[in-house]
From TrEMBL:
<dbReference type="GO" id="GO:0007596">
    <property type="term" value="P:blood coagulation"/>
</dbReference>
<feature type="domain" description="Fibrinogen C-terminal">
    <location>
        <begin position="268"/>
        <end position="488"/>
    </location>
</feature>
<dbReference type="InterPro" id="IPR014716">
    <property type="entry name" value="Fibrinogen_a/b/g_C_1"/>
</dbReference>
<dbReference type="InterPro" id="IPR020837">
    <property type="entry name" value="Fibrinogen_CS"/>
</dbReference>
<dbReference type="InterPro" id="IPR002181">
    <property type="entry name" value="Fibrinogen_a/b/g_C_dom"/>
</dbReference>
<dbReference type="InterPro" id="IPR037579">
    <property type="entry name" value="FIB_ANG-like"/>
</dbReference>
<keyword id="KW-0732">Signal</keyword>
<dbReference type="Pfam" id="PF00147">
    <property type="entry name" value="Fibrinogen_C"/>
</dbReference>
<keyword id="KW-0964">Secreted</keyword>
<dbReference type="InterPro" id="IPR036056">
    <property type="entry name" value="Fibrinogen-like_C"/>
</dbReference>
<keyword id="KW-0175">Coiled coil</keyword>
<protein>
    <submittedName>
        <fullName>ANGL2 protein</fullName>
    </submittedName>
</protein>
<keyword id="KW-1015">Disulfide bond</keyword>
<keyword id="KW-0325">Glycoprotein</keyword>
<feature type="signal peptide">
    <location>
        <begin position="1"/>
        <end position="21"/>
    </location>
</feature>
<dbReference type="GO" id="GO:0005576">
    <property type="term" value="C:extracellular region"/>
</dbReference>
<feature type="coiled-coil region">
    <location>
        <begin position="82"/>
        <end position="109"/>
    </location>
</feature>
Amino acid sequence: RIMMTRRFICLMLIVAVGTAASKTQEFEGNDEEKEQEFIYMNRYKRSSDSQDKCTYTFIVPQQRVTGAICVNSKEPEVLLENRVNKQEIQLLNNELLKQKRQIETLQQLVEVDGGIVNEVKLLRKESRNMNSRVTQLYMQLLHEIIRKRDNALELSQLENKILNQTADMLQLANKYKDLEYKYQHLMSIANNQSIIIAQLEEYCQRMPSIKPLPQTPQPPSKAYQPPTYNRMINQISTNEIQSDQNLKVLPPTLPTMPAVTSIPTSTDKPSGPWRDCLQALEDGHDTSSIYLVKPENTNRLMQVWCDQRHDPGGWTVIQRRLDGSVNFFRNWETYKQGFGNIDGEYWLGLENIYWLTNQGNYKLLITMEDWSGRKVFAEYASFRLEPESEYYKLRLGRYNGNAGDSFTWHNGKQFTTLDRDHDVYTGNCAHYQKGGWWYNACAHSNLNGVWYRGGHYRSRYQDGVYWAEFRGGSYSLKKVVMMIRPNPNTFH
């Protein structure tokens, strides 16, 4: 509607300007003719004076007069009015021309504005389309984000299920290992008892055939001896510790019996049980293996590993770490009775160590090896434990060795496990260091900690198998052996 109004006004102005211009041109034509006649008449008019005077003729170039000409002050009023009208008409013409140009400019602007308006409309339409497209894409993005979150949630749930199932599997595996350990333990006891029963039956069957020895000297007959414990162990399928065993002990030798044949034979080595590994070595058993030991003043039988090769031999191994196959994070009762595999990683048991070390003077030797193959040792002139009523308090003697003394700081301290806290620290050191030990506050050494592969380990707590004076507390040793031997005055 605005556009049509503008066009109507423009047409009216164009018609008015055209009419005025035609009239002005006619009037201007008459005016110019009269003005030229007046000028030329005055120009060629000569004086009518006497002919006796000289006359001069000046030829002046003809020029178009643009402004007002004062030829005679006494001009007719009609000419003056015409001249005034002419000037006004000229001014009107100029004004009309200016307005005409302005109208043309306005028309061009209107046309341009119309094109711009159309372009703006198109741009608005495109903008609406783009907004619609952006909205669609945004909704698709939201759906995709929601879908990914759902997938992430499902993945997290699946991971949690897998972790739970893995934990259940580990628990079942641990239970299976415990059951297998108990089974092997019971089977070992049954085999030992079967062997002892068979020996007793054989001995009872031979008792009636004993005859008095003749008065004449004869070669000594072969004394009947039960098989050595090493042979019995070879018949057992596992080497688990037999803890808290209170069997009656057979005498080391039985009454002399006649030989099966009349050919004299040599006497076998004593088969034990022995007081310790040194006594077994003195009886001729110089092979490192499992032996049956019965300390003095007790009927307690125990299986121990005797190291007869480490100079000078006769060492009773009370603890060994070498491959991390046994978990040493145990409770008080387990540490009391002992656990592990005698021919591998094991702990002999606090009660067994107490009976061994209280039948005489014993020294302690600790051998250690790091992951680069370096071997060191620490030896203490005396080593013994107090009874359980004193929580197996540690008693150590003078230090000697090249590993550094990281054990004397624990001298006089009671044994601590995860369920029995006897250390001087406000918390439970066994809980932080993952193993039973004679903790102070807490430790300069812990040979019952977690066996980490590779040496240096990362853990929230200092819980590796470490000896602070040798490689520091953040280094888990590769191999550790703790063993005892009588005669503490003799250093290794």
